Amino acid sequence: EAQVTQNPRYLITVTGKKLTVTCSQNMNHEYMSWYRQDPGLGLRQIYYSMNVEVTDKGDVPEGYKVSRKEKRNFPLILESPSPNQTSLYFCASSPNHSSYNSPLHFGNGTRLTVT
Amino acid sequence: AQTVTQSQPEMSVQEAETVTLSCTYDTSESDYYLFWYKQPPSRQMILVIRQEAYKQQNATENRFSVNFQKAAKSFSLKISDSQLGDAAMYFCAYRAYSGAGSYQLTFGKGTKLSVIP
Question: Among B52, B103, B110, whose Cβ lies nearest the Cβ of A100?
């Protein structure tokens, strides 16, 4: 089944403790992206990747890192999480970034709480 | 920068009735894409319908249709014969056809739709 898999689904951590949210897609998509969703703000892009070893900042990249060493994986790294990073995170992918016929496929989200 | 505005934070509709969710956007581009996504309580983001800006004809997917008014920069979603399963948060989203704006979806803040039995 074609899908974007995020893990974990829920995560509670403390301020400053490094964490990684994994994202994997099995559709051979070139484009992958991370969004965070906050009440009253909708979804905002954190980082995106056009292909292996090609990443760039979205609208809210501060406090996050990403890597794209393999086409299928695009982990989101919080080196020193803070409470303002408490949010719902989505990974998404598509065959390429611009095709109308290749809309984004979203993962099921990761609910992160930083205390 | 592009912005997407959903002016109705919450709406409700009686089962089997029709409801329209509004969305306006701001862009200087002439070619772009517009989307409506549905997010049920399961948190999944589900694509409901999409529209290419250069197409005059409004997109339709079963009970879902859009009213795309390019000059007014308006992209409303109409849900006909509302069902209990339509209860969800609905997000309007924009993506440019090319350039930096094509690398992301710009989302509105969402409209929470309740369906009354």
Answer: B52
